[in-house]
Amino acid sequence: RWPRTGSATPSSFNGSASRRLRLSRGWGASRSTPRVRSVAALVMTVLTFMIVGSAAGPRWNPEPLTTTIDVATPSVAVGPVGAPDPVGTYETTTRTVQVQLDGYVTDVLIAEPIGLTEPAPAVVFIHGAGTGLSTAFEEHAIELASAGIVAVSPSKRLDTYSTAHRDYIAMAADYEVTWRMATTLEGVDPDRVGLYAESEGAWIAPILASRVPEVAFLALISAPIVPPRQQGAFAIDAYLRNVGVPGPLMRIVPRAAGAQLPGGILAYVDFQVRPYLEETTQLIFMAYGTDDASMPIVQGPQIVMASVPGGADQVLLRYYQDANHGIRVGSATDPLAPGFITGLATWMLDPAGAQAAGPQVAGATPIQVHLANTVPKPRWFADGEMMVRVPLISFGMVLAGFALLGLSRAVAVARGRGFTGGLRGASKRLGALAGAAIAVVILLVVYVALIAAFAVNYQRHPWVVWGGWAILQLASVGAAWCVVVAGRRLLIVRRRVHLLRGKGIGSGLPARHRELASWMVFTGALGLLVVAAYWGAFSPLW
């Protein structure tokens, strides 16, 4: 485009320069040749993003679990055959007290049986992941109290607990305060106060049990046992498979779970509970639901039995048919699995007697396909601070490039120079490229969030899963086309600007700044697409 101002006109060029300009725009060539080249460039660009995304690693090939746990009987009964059900023996009462921790006050729900004639055992609940109010175990507490067990459920301390930072050793110390309070309750036998730990709590309870030998017993419910990082990768893998996601999306597992975040964020995910299990001498009751996809329900008990001093004889293990992570058949509001509270209460009333009565392992047959194992670590460019820096730097380059374009254009107008050497048309294509790159990143985030929502709710929506994946891939191809168009335009402009500068036309600081700004936008958008490719935006449907 020729400006209305300035001295540059087509007549300013000699025949040779004019021919070179026509060639730079593709004039004189057959119409089909540019189209073929454009399609070829698109194919090469998409393939490049595919290869970069795949080869960046790490790959995900979980190791199959080759060992099993044999159940002696499908019955989940605990204790001597024909023993009466203790649940419902007593009327119950509940009250809430406050316990002073180190710089924190927590509410504690206490459920007690009415009419006891002798000191009773007691149990302190340790929460799994989440906020963990004292009422979270109210149903369990009342049921156990009706069996003659004083149940103590504290609220989890939240001022030192977050997704980013957790200290399991400090949490064990906090729960110890509540445990010691429970030993002083009226009507409680101080030598029979144990722990009930669910999910994440099973990393905390062995710390407390190993450091305080007076803890009477240990119930580990839906226990991960393996380090949090390994359990997280195992759970993500199982959830994605249950949802039925396309195969290429599985590479998210090690790239998300294996990354080291800066500033000590999520440092607790490498916590090892096994050293504490090796010092745990209390009898242990373990329980899993066979529909719990988030836990290594075979591997976890195997590790416990191989770690505790008493070996397998120290553990009583029950599997509940069709029960989920909360040992419920159905949703979180459905009743607890049949036989769970009865077996738990029977065991807590007399752990040694229940252990001796056997069988050691009973219930439904557990199935675990893959090992929860060491998670491959991403390479340096997608790990640690770089995991955050790369997308932020890419996005920053896009914004800075457009800002510099606007500034240089304003300076050019102020100087009365309208010549852009074709950069005005390039700016439009760069805008389309930047918009497409950002759209792909947003689509990827929304798609992954949608899959995560399906996964945690055990939902399968094939049309949404595969349709969303197809839309993401089409959007990625569209962004690749914008790369081709914008890149080709920038190369044409670059040749034209350098040619005209040789004739003394279009030179000056604003023009050079516009060229620099244009390449900044292009490079930043390219970086965003590389990030999207790393997380699976450019992948085939198979």
Give an overview of the whole structure:
- Helix content is about 45%, strand content about 10%.
- The longest helix is centred in the C-terminal third of the chain and has 41 residues, at about 460-500.
- The chain has about 550 residues and is α/β, with parallel strands linked by helices.
- Mean pLDDT is about 90; it is low at about 1-15 and about 15-30.
- The radius of gyration is 32 Å and the shape is elongated.
- Helix 5 links the parallel strand 5 (about 190-200) and strand 6 (about 215-220).
- It has helices spanning about 15-25, 30-55, 140-145, 170-185, 200-210, 230-245, 250-255, 275, 300-305, 340-350, 350-355, 385-415, 425-455, 460-500, 510-535; strands spanning about 90-100, 105-115, 120-125, 150-155, 190-200, 215-220, 285-290, 315-320, 360-365.
- Strands 1-2-4-3-5-6-7-8-9 form a 9-stranded mixed sheet, with helices on both faces.
- The two termini are about 45 Å apart.
Largest sheet: 9 strands, mixed
Tell how many strands the DSSP assignment holds.
Answer: 9
**Biggest sheet strand line-up:** 1-2-4-3-5-6-7-8-9
> Helix fraction?
40-55%
Beta-strand proportion: 5-15%
Oligomer: single chain
First and last CA, distance: 46 Å
The helix/strand order is HHEEEHEHEHEHHHEHEHHEHHHH
Chain-averaged pLDDT: 88
Report Rg. 32 Å
Large-scale geometry: elongated
